[in-house]
């Protein structure tokens, strides 16, 4: 729930991150600074998203706007904004994005070792929703470099299990802009106050209800699903004896928004494999794994139907995975049904 507090005793995200860092005397501050870098990117993207409708009025993307600036598609803009916010800082050794085919190693000066961290991100997920003014989001995942020791990082540094993440989160450009993140010590949500340009702590220690109110899935794919998934979704819709109560349906088709609603209100989101997408649609490294880390830290769970999402060892940067994520008991129910012979 949103905290009610004196308007003069606000907690900015900078203060919160600093206080969390003090709990770790060994911390060098680099991760905190990387999180601040992402906050800045979030504010810049949020500003641009908020003007999306106006941008359409003022000119097509790719055209010159009234300020004489070349306008970019928002997903390209978001991709570059995140990369530019981190690549000069010496904190990351490689960045990888849904928008780029290959990871981008961060070049370092000869007298420096190169950054400690790896950043994977989806700059603007659900971007097909921009044109109809529906919520969209940015998702990020941070690992320590592991395969290389110094210099620019590599693809191998990116291919780590979700369990190895040191931080993950998302920015939701919804009715308000929110940043929700975890460093493995709970999940905390901050709302951007646009009048002062600060993310303020609004949702400390978010806990996901054990049983969800909602199920969220693109049910138009029903005929393409395996019988096991049909049974699971059928149970979420109609109930299954004493095992699952019937739920209400909510599906925005914008992953961050669907996950955020379910995290706050309790629910289970499914994007299963189907005959047209045999490995599912969503990407493991910068969609499923960071959201799984957040949801698990809030008391929920995430599976591909057989394995915990956080235990999957990736073999490719843009690897896809089926995803069932949300309230702990609902995900456990799905895993039990899908695990039955
Ligand atoms: P994108 O990464 O190309 O934006 O696609 C991901 C989006 C998610 O936000 C959403 O959960 C899903 O695709 C919706 O897919 P569908 O339209 O098949 O239901
Ligand atoms: Mg995406």
Polypeptide structure, described:
The protein has 341 residues and is an alpha+beta fold. It has 2 domains: 13-203, Fructose-1,6-Bisphosphatase, Chain A, domain 1 (2-Layer Sandwich), CATH 3.30.540.10; 214-339, D-Maltodextrin-Binding Protein, domain 2 (3-Layer(aba) Sandwich), CATH 3.40.190.80. It has 9 helices and 13 strands. The strands form 2 sheets. Strands 2-1-3-4-5-6-7-8 form an 8-stranded mixed beta sheet, with helices on both faces. The longest helix has 21 residues, at 30-50. The structure holds 2,5-anhydro-1,6-di-O-phosphono-D-mannitol and magnesium ion (MG). 2,5-anhydro-1,6-di-O-phosphono-D-mannitol is lined by residues 98, 125-127, 218, 253-255, 271, 281.
Summarize this entry quickly:
The protein has 341 residues and is α+β, with helices and mostly antiparallel strands.
Protein topology:
Elements: H1 13-22, H2 30-50, H3 52-58, H4 74-86, E1 92-97, E2 104-105, E3 117-125, E4 136-144, H5 155-158, E5 167-173, E6 177-182, E7 187-193, E8 198-203, E9 214-216, H6 227-238, E10 248-249, H7 255-265, E11 267-271, H8 284-297, E12 301-303, E13 323-326, H9 328-339
Parallel strand pairs: 1-3, 9-10, 9-11
Antiparallel strand pairs: 1-2, 3-4, 4-5, 5-6, 6-7, 7-8, 11-13, 12-13
Helix pairs in contact: 1-2, 2-4, 6-9
The structure holds 2,5-anhydro-1,6-di-O-phosphono-D-mannitol and magnesium ion (MG).
